[in-house]
Amino acid sequence: MSSNIFFDPVFLKNLRRRQIKTTLVNILLLAASSISFISIVVIVGSLVLESSIFFGQVSITEFITGTEWTVLFTPKKFGVQPLLVATAITSLIALAVAMPVGLAVAIYLSEYASNRARKPIKSVIEVLAGIPTVVYGYFALYFISPNLLMPLIEGIGVHSALAVGLTIGVLIIPIVASLSEDAMYSVPEDFRQAAYSLGARKLDVVFRVVLPAALSGIFASIILAFTRAMGETMIAAIAGGFRVYYSWDPREAMQTMTAFIAQVATGDAPHGTIEYQSIFAVGLLLFLVTMAFNIVALYIVKRWQVRY
Amino acid sequence: MAGTVLEVKVLSRRDRLKKILDIATPVILAIAVFIAISAVAALLITVVYQGAGRLSLNLILEYPSANPAEAGMRSAFLGSFWTVGLSALVSMPLGIATGLYLSEWSSWRRFRRFVEFNIANLAGVPSIIFGLVGLSLLTYGLGWGRSIIAGAFTLGIMTLPLVTVSAAEAVKTVPEALKHGAYALGATKLQVTRYIILPRSLPMMMTGAILAISRAIGEAAPILIISGLLFIRRDPVSIFDRFTVMPLQIFNWVSRPQVAFQELASAAIIVLLMLLLALNASAIAIRYRFQKRLVL
């Protein structure tokens, strides 16, 4: 019996040591994994904490419903509506650009393009996704505004919500295109073949079989692109101008929520002043809106997903 | 009988319309693809057209200046290196650890789901929000000031989801048979991780890390919040120094009315894009080498 390895003290000692090591590493990895959760808590916590100082001096009703935002002037008014509307206009324009183009690119790549065309087109789209946003801001100010918008639309200035929206639209095309394409590409080939064998045309196969099957992924990609548009800062700061203007007219220059935060940061507002605190209130609002959309998107993916 | 004929007629009319649509659809879709591609082309052409003349080594050797003829972005170039390098030191260990835990170590399904949900949410937080939290918590809360380390930490947490997702994917590509073989020989999880999983998934993890680094290099908004817009005419020497980064220097030049500064901005953009291109090329090279080795 003494030859049995399970009674060998050296073996048992080594085994014990290995078990302890493994447990330690397990705890370490668990701790690292918790960082993501802790980060979310810290983000919410610090935004709420800093905003509470702001809301100690400004009522929430005034903040949400007020239509004048003059934080950087006197008399100070704290109605976030103008910033909110500007963000809404620019993101909706962006969506109006990115949704048709992005979806069309996705359908083309997934259903129509030959394998030879697929790769280069995909890499061009990836290039688009990898360009820093400050470059897009430059593009808006020195190409889209002067060469595209100003000759076509009368009375539009260098800075406009339209220029911001269009450029953000280009920025989020890759998000819609690549996520939707993933969703469509993963629809099983059987579905297509079955439809063809029933006599369907390619058109019917694409729009009545593949698109509905991939709908959850497509919808999620659009929502993700929309939240990305709302949070976009540099394009809005460069091409939107620093004028707070309450209007739904996309030809006007107007400041979005993100551009306001950027402006205050640029101006180096002293720590603790109401100007400084106001960027956290705006940030909290932006965070809540984008989180709500993100959670809806995650929920849709989970619920609508067609299981093949 | 008459009814049947009518039906056939209606059907054939619908059929003809469909036939036309069937042919037209790929053309319409191709036009959309063309629009997307021409946007890339227009962007690149604008940048090169305006900036090529200003491109010189002075751009990364000289400090910023009020005189565009002798202005460069040396401090921003170095600031980017420090900040992004340090941010990788934050995001890579955390991301790889989380990826390993999610794909291999955890047997606690609900916790895994929970972490995945948080990672997805973290990826959806607008970058400027990270800047605000960095400012509130690191700069003032922990007293790190508007320093390189505050910016690096913020970028590190911001790019954590990217690293994590690619690390988790990388671990999943390791063949089950190899792992099971090792387990069957009595290897512990740690040994399987150390000798089977990591050597095979590290190249793909690196690819993810490089993509995260490219994202961090181009990011301006959170750094703008933390560092403000600065005019710095010296090299960073410590992680507690104030700093600026390339995208911010570009933002600064873009916002100026003089044409010379716009050209400088274009030239700086070319440098930034070249750097990103080099990073992406290296990511592809690593992936390629890895794929070749996988064949064995």
UniProtKB/TrEMBL annotation, chain B:
GO terms for cellular component: plasma membrane. One of its GO terms (molecular function) is phosphate transmembrane transporter activity. The chain crosses the membrane at residues 20-49, 81-102, 122-142, 148-171, 209-232, 264-286. GO terms for biological process: phosphate ion transmembrane transport. Keywords: Cell membrane, Membrane, Transmembrane, Transmembrane helix, Transport. It is a multi-pass membrane protein. InterPro entries: MetI-like (IPR000515), MetI-like_sf (IPR035906), Phosphate_PstA (IPR005672). Residues 77-283 form the ABC transmembrane type-1 domain. It is found in: Cell membrane. Pfam families: BPD_transp_1 (PF00528). Belongs to the binding-protein-dependent transport system permease family. CysTW subfamily. NCBIfam families: 3a0107s02c. This is Phosphate transport system permease protein PstA. The lineage of its organism: Archaea, Nitrososphaerota, Candidatus Caldarchaeales, Candidatus Caldarchaeaceae, Candidatus Caldarchaeum.
